[in-house]
Task: structure prediction
Amino acid sequence: MKIEISDYNGTKVFGISGDIDMNSSPELRRELLDLVVRKVPVLLVDFKGVSYIDSSGIATFVEGLKGMMPYGGRLKFFGIPQGIREIFSFSKLDRVFEIYPSIEDAFNR
Amino acid sequence: MADEHTVTVSEAFLRGMEKKVEDLKTLTEMSAIISSTLDLDELMSLVMERAKEIMAADACSILFYNRETDKLEFEVAMCREDNTCEVLKKRISLDMGQGIAGWVAENRKPLFIEDVSKDDRFFQDADKLTGFITKSLIAVPLIGRRGLIGVAELLNPGNRGYDPEIFQLLCRQFAIAIENSLFHKESVERERLKQELDIAAVLQKSFLPESPVLKEGALTASAMNISAAKVGGDIYDFIGPANGKLGVLIGDVSGKGVSAALYMAKIISDFRYVAHHMETPDIVLERMNTVLSKSPRGMFLTAIYMTADTSTGEITLAAAGHPPFFLISGESVEVVSMPSGPPLGIIPSEYPSHTLKLKNGDRLIFVTDGVFDAKNKKGERIGFENITEFIKFHPGADNLMDRIIEYVGDFSRGTERADDLTIVEVRWGG
Result:
């Protein structure tokens, strides 16, 4: 897994590629919690390059989301590949996370 | 006149010989230190401390090469002030090619620099951050059998009379010793992890029902659970029978290993407490959702909980982000994907109940994702569709659970099981 951190009109973007699993999620957790501690208002996560996510990876995002909720922060996903979109809908995680088709949608809504 | 056994040598030659003897002594002494321990930290401290002494250097450091990030990170730093070492370890990493260490790592060649102020490659930020003043330095690549390990540096060496060849020879020995102790550390760690996982697997099993089959009236609930090497955190449980009802739970805790097993233990005890009054599944899951809302590290549980009336065969179910289940009635197999709330422990939610009436001989089959996520050697997943097709092909099989487990086993033969497999069957009547 690789995380590229960039900026889109002043909003932080995580561009993730590879597998988000038990081995790689600690790195994601570090980066995510670093932003949560600094109370970043919005984080956009680009899933285009993600090949697989397991429940440890999802739990890491749940932890990030739970950290952001008390201060009104928003965690928005976009570019989710079909296979991962199915995992999210299968397990009703699409009710938990904000999911958008593109970075523009994620940014504007 | 000198006798025939006397050889006359120049003073310079004699000094040179003395120096060689000194160097060899150093080499022997360092070799003894290097082979004295397999403890990585001890090894690096001993060697670098002695190297610093011999070379009369002000400070020394080892940077390790991190393959994942392609950067050099400070692993050992020995300076006069502890604070300086902490700053280096926490705040400085170098790209390949950056600074002197980066150059040495990239080119796999040592550098002996008399005056760093005249060398463009010198990375000044470390000095700026630590307040240390580097005047001269020796930097040597540490190369083991698996390639680059890192770079060792001695700063401001006072001893200019060293032999670079001896120094490099020592570094080669040192690199191999570091590699050996890394291997040792990894194998100890692997063994420790394996033992912990064995305990986690025992722990997990100890919380599952004593018997995987519970029969009450015309209703039979049975389960099969196979743990993955890494312990996947699957659970199932039977509640009751009480008040003419039987409760059946199937679930999957997020994550794997010891944390999943421990969290599963907590969930099972919470669940038994919440469900023992035989309230309807919607209420049980809502309460479990509240209980688990403070779960650590974002952990959550996908689950289906059902209660069955042991005299009528009426089933009430509620689901929390768990995969659909199968209703087998005669030759027909239906995939039941009912309205469901999200997994438990994430956000406040409702978990609507769904009712169905089983006919004589009907069966419900519940699975965890380990069943359809199993991979083959090529890394392909079996998929929910294929499991559905398999069940449709064998709707009447008496030992359907065994057959499914066998099918998954055949598909993923030659691979390590990545996740637990759990199947629960609820059968009404004959």
